[in-house]
């Protein structure tokens, strides 16, 4: 049981140190603006991984409603 707690603490520590080391390297490596934008896009993708698909489905739904509305207006004219 003590080994499990120690293992979880060790893994958490490695993850935190790894993330901090990566951020430090990116900031001092060169173009920090590009790296920050990359991190922002990655975090947004993590928050909502299907955002692109959601936008595409919303557009498809909008166009479908437009076509149905147009078809119903033509049916009424006949």
Describe this structure in words.
The protein has about 80 residues and is mostly helical. It folds into two domains: about 45 residues; about 30 residues. About 90% of the residues lie in helices and about 0% in strands. It has three helices and no strands. The protein is elongated and about 80 Å long.
Short note summarizing the structure:
With about 80 residues, the chain is mostly helical.
Query: Tell me about the biggest sheet?
Result: none
Head-to-tail CA distance between termini: 78 Å
- Estimated share of beta-strand residues: under 5%
What string, H for helix and E for strand, traces the elements in order? HHH
Helicity level: over 70%
Shape category: elongated
Secondary-structure-derived class: mainly alpha
Count of individual domains: 2
Instruction: Name the average pLDDT.
Output: 85
Number of helices: 3
| Contiguous uncertain segments of 5+ residues | none
Number of strands: 0
Q: What integer value in Å does the Rg equal? A: 25 Å
